[in-house]
Amino acid sequence: GLLEIGRLVGAADPYFQIYTLRLKPIATASLPGTPVEGMIVYDDTANKLKVYNGSAWETVTSAV
């Protein structure tokens, strides 16, 4: 299931900090079939962090 880790309700400043977050690893074949835009997963088949952009899963890459 999904775990809600934070919710902003009526906040003037839309930013908040998460100091520790661990994603449960998920295999490529088990990625959610009906994901929601902005969903983040750790793909343990590819060993990559992925984000759903609204139409496809994209691998997160470093800009450095």
Summarize it.
By secondary structure, the chain is mainly beta.
Spatially, the strands of the biggest sheet line up as 1-2-3-4
Alpha-beta content class? mainly beta
Number of helices: 0
- In helices, the fraction of residues equals under 10%
Radius of gyration: 14 Å
Distance between the termini: 34 Å
Number of strands: 4
Q: Secondary-structure element sequence?
A: EEEE
* Beta content: 15-25%
Low-confidence stretches: none
Mean pLDDT level? 78
Main sheet attributes: strand count, strand direction, barrel closure:
4 strands, mixed
CA-based shape: globular
Write the layout of secondary structure elements.
Blueprint: E1 25-26, E2 40-43, E3 48-52, E4 57-59
Parallel strand pairs: 1-2
Antiparallel strand pairs: 2-3, 3-4
Describe the structure.
With 64 residues, this protein is mainly beta. Helix content is 0%, strand content 22%. It has strands spanning 25-26, 40-43, 48-52, 57-59. It has a 4-stranded mixed sheet with strand order 1-2-3-4, with no helix packed on it. The protein is globular, with a radius of gyration of 14 Å. The mean pLDDT is 78.
Q: What keywords describe this structure?
A:
64 residues, 0% helix
